[in-house]
What we know:
Layout: H1 6-27, H2 33-68
Amino acid sequence: MAKKGEGLNFINRVSNYFRSVRNELKKVSWPSRKDLKNFTAVVIAMTIILALIMGFADLIFQQVFLRFI
């Protein structure tokens, strides 16, 4: 059976956790909007490039294996 005051202790711990999270997020140096756009463009470009490379490699391997079968 739960002891008296344990529910309050849990609420205090959860409250302290979220307070600590908020304080830590204030210390984070967030990128500017310009930096965020540049990073996003790099990620999208690299994803497209790697998808094309993997697709091309898949096509080559498919043709090679079809010749052996």
